[in-house]
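Subject: mismatched residue count in predicted assembly?

I count 832 residues in my input, but I want to confirm that the predicted structure covers every chain. Input:
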Amino acid sequence: MTAEIISVGTELLLGQILNSDAQYLARELSAYGYNLYYQVTVGDNMDRLCQCLKTALGRSDVVLLSGGLGPTEDDMTKEAVSAVFGLEMELDEASKSEIQCFFAARNREMTPNNLRQAMFPKGSIVLPNARGTAPGCIVEKDGKAAIVLPGPPHELIDMFDRHARGYLAKKSDAKIVSRVLRIFGMGESSVEHRVRDLMDGANPTLAPYASVGEVTLRLTAKVGAGESAGALLDPLTDEVISRLGDLVYTTANEKLEELAVRLLKENAKTLALAESCTGGLVAEKITDVPGASEVLLEGVVAYSNAAKMRRLGVNEATLEQFGAVSEQTASEMAEGAKNSSGADYGLSLTGIAGPGGGTAEKPVGLVYIALAGGGETFVKKLRLGGDRARIRTMSALYALDLLRRRLCSLPLETDK
Amino acid sequence: MTAEIISVGTELLLGQILNSDAQYLARELSAYGYNLYYQVTVGDNMDRLCQCLKTALGRSDVVLLSGGLGPTEDDMTKEAVSAVFGLEMELDEASKSEIQCFFAARNREMTPNNLRQAMFPKGSIVLPNARGTAPGCIVEKDGKAAIVLPGPPHELIDMFDRHARGYLAKKSDAKIVSRVLRIFGMGESSVEHRVRDLMDGANPTLAPYASVGEVTLRLTAKVGAGESAGALLDPLTDEVISRLGDLVYTTANEKLEELAVRLLKENAKTLALAESCTGGLVAEKITDVPGASEVLLEGVVAYSNAAKMRRLGVNEATLEQFGAVSEQTASEMAEGAKNSSGADYGLSLTGIAGPGGGTAEKPVGLVYIALAGGGETFVKKLRLGGDRARIRTMSALYALDLLRRRLCSLPLETDK
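Triage response: the counts match. Full output below for your records.
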């Protein structure tokens, strides 16, 4: 079963609003096993909207339209559906009463153009709008269906939940189940190089996605009646893990910071942070996880040498001899964070995020990460590329990964 | 001049990611006077992508494509452009060298498929990628142009800024000049209510945009030959400021943290931070500004009472009597940060970000911000709504705004 989304609204084409409706509908269609090949955004223009709808009905079984249900002349989605399906518009008395009640309840005057919201292509299934004045509708003809929904996201989601979801589930011929594996420590092309042959499978499929520093592999299975999603997804999951090993840090789509907080809780361990180049980014990520306060005792953002000495007990001699960006300073920062807070682990970062501050000996992108705890201190040296934002983000991710590796008793050295 | 956007990526059609690229490009095209009638999203499928591109070139002068530039077999945007334009693919030696350098600098292995990223339709203007390995390109033929950009938003925006912006401006038949006013401390609908009548103007136009906690007003003027952008934009700017006063914190599109760092530098003042509920977010924002190390002496993330006492000198009696989330604790945190670091200002935040931890007396969303310096300490009490992420972000913005107000000698009380 194929579907298509048409988002209607000039404000979308002017970039004034973000099209979150399209993402929501796409995700739901995928979950019900519909193949979505196209999503089109078009403005409030009758000719262009009719053209898009004709094209969509020519290549898809179900077309979802969002937006253009308001009371103004600009709003013409139902009229376009009526024109393309060759159906007259007719008044829906129930909708008319509801719109009248809506205005009466708010003590507001109803204008004649609000009645346009009670007009539908003949034979429509009318979908009441619990969050606003514009009802939607489902129109069927010649084996094709158009589902017309309002544009404001809270109205669209509510109407979809109440009325469109059941319709789509009933009409669907398959169920789709996805599993997300997240990988840290290897670039997208290297990951793909190692799993390329697995990407040719039809069911389940395997697809890589990349963001700064992380690669995600999505396994998607089409599950027929009587089939088990696990039976389809488990063998492929195992094969990927056998190739990428502990670079795969989750099969449950957790972020590194979520995993780190969970592992600290499960191990009943606490953490203290000492950040220089990342300036609080690691603390910010960790405290973004609800309940982080149970495991993060404190963090220090120590940019200056004075702060490193006063707050973390770094020796002046160490700073003089090796500099603030050095293995030795990173060690003393991590140990200072751990010892002064009483935490089980101290994690530190010191480096040169740029754009200024680099030298030939210590270039922009040189970062040291240290993890103190369990009687030892491990230091990792990174040479990162990219701009300030990338260097800071990558440093934070490497630090979280180092913590994960320690908590899972995995090798701390990860250079390939 | 008409334009069209084609967003390429099966992950978009599965609803896995939000298409923020399309909004960004739509807004920029509008600012340069292009008419955008269609935006289409299509998956990683050669036939369907070629079909969309043919249709787009048939009805638009310029087609912007985003996504599908990665090193994998799934990435086929350049190949589709080459097929539809009837141009062979050829190796760009400069891109090849850059990709090799990218991998060498990171001490990572370059796989053969990375070389695909150095292949372009013959005659392309190659657009270097400062944020990743995938260069983009501009391809022109028979009066039509395709601009191929990477999918990850930070790469797309950077490449657009450096290379596509100038190309589009030159090609446009209108010169469009924009000015961005940023507003903190008032919601979008209230801002809109106060400037609504100004939004009816044709030249310059005024359009509001909202993100978490901030409202942006974009003034856009279409400037004819011999006209001055300033003469068009200045009166409208003055009118907006006369209505919104010091809620307008910049007419130069600076972020609050950029403004705060600049003001600290200009006033030769230093800052220390003490964060509880924001967990390093303020530090992270400030240190995201290059050169922040000159003004930020240090930051402390003090979640626990123990850390508040040890790191910031908060009195045990204060914590016992008033609690960690109180005006008194906020004051002592700010003063402690200032005094122990020797900074001119100490800025603190303590509150309940949720989802847990709230009580009837101290509900989720209660946040105190304190600013110590210049012989006094000012405390602001906030009652914020929304989820954990919103409460943390709003708290950080209020703290930065408080600092701005102090440094500009503006009233610190801002309740309307």
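The longest strand of chain B covers residues 175-184. Marking this ticket as 'not a bug'.
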